[in-house]
Design goal:
The model has no long low-confidence stretch (mean pLDDT 89). It is elongated, with a radius of gyration of 27 Å. 25% of the residues lie in helices and 29% in strands. The protein starts with a strand and ends in a 13-residue tail after the last strand. Strand 10 (231-239) and strand 11 (244-249) form a beta hairpin. The strands form three sheets. The protein has a five-stranded antiparallel sheet. It contains seven helices and twelve strands. With 271 residues, the chain is an alpha+beta fold.
């Protein structure tokens, strides 16, 4: 087992483990850590805890120190510089007539690099743009192409439910979402109804998927022949939430019954 603390660098960002190196670090405390891209400022969101070594991505880097007031002022100054860099980036992209959309700009904590995040339909030759930006900022420049889901996470917004986007408020990682999840919940398959503002399937389709799938396991499948107190018939639909089954009886009558009152003919198994 290894003692670690969980650190997040952006709101709703992924949590990374670091070695506390004997520091007293509690959730909510700002910390300075060593990362693959240099010294960075982050917020501890998981206090010291023991985790199996298999859960650690080696080498486990250390927390250098608890952030000071000067460190926090440095972060605020970097944010101000990033806003100015964004405006410069927009003008340079327009000057080079590149088919790309600038989404965000970020300075690393130690000012060793400026990262420009952008979206584009395909590959973009931005070598001249990088040289132009480097001559302005006189530091390392990185242009990073991101997807539309990452763009929504960075920019934020309101979902069709009227709440802040899940990805920008609490989801650390994107999980795979499929059209099958919408089908299992009997939702409309109209793309405008099940897509988020990013144009992809809504992340929230994932939330009830496993529960719905488990609740359907002991229910008869639509189309199955069943025996009910009202007579034999065929299953038209099931409702996992209310645990009810709608059956068309052999005499043409439609009935809705609790799942406990519906049985498969002897020798048949539920699907």
């Amino acid at each position: 087992m290894v003692c670690v603390v969980g650190v997040r660098f952006k709101k709703a960002g992924k949590i990374y483990y670091f070695d506390p190196d004997g520091c007293e670090i509690m959730p909510g405390v700002g910390v300075i850590v060593e990362t693959a891209r240099g010294t960075e400022y982050g917020e501890a969101v998981v206090g010291p805890k023991l985790v199996p070594e298999d859960d650690i991505v080696q080498p486990l880097k250390q927390v250098l120190r608890v952030a000071t007031a000067d460190d926090r002022r440095q972060v605020e100054e970097n944010e101000k510089k990033a806003k100015r860099a964004f405006d410069i980036g927009l003008s340079k992209i327009a000057a080079h007539k590149l088919p790309m959309k600038l989404v965000d700009v970020e300075y690393t904590f130690d000012n060793s690099k400026v990262i420009f995040y952008f979206t584009a339909e395909g590959r973009v030759d931005f070598r001249e743009l990088v040289r132009d930006l480097a001559s302005v900022f006189r530091t390392r420049i990185e242009l990073r192409q991101i997807g539309v889901r990452d763009e929504a996470k960075m920019l934020g917004g309101m979902g069709p439910c009227g709440r802040a986007l899940c990805c920008s408020s609490f989801l650390g990682d994107f999980e795979p979402v499929s059209i099958r999840m919408a089908k299992e919940q009997n939702l409309s398959l109209n793309p405008t109804k099940i897509s988020g503002i990013c144009g992809r399937l809504m992340c929230c389709l994932k939330y009830e998927s496993s529960t719905r799938r488990a609740s359907r396991e002991d229910l008869p499948a639509p189309g199955a022949r069943v025996v009910t107190p009202e007579g034999d018939g065929k299953v038209l639909s099931i409702d996992p939430e209310t645990r009810s089954v709608t059956v068309r009886l052999d005499d043409g009558q439609r009935v809705s019954l609790p799942a406990a009152e519906v049985e498969l003919p002897e020798g048949e198994a539920k699907k």
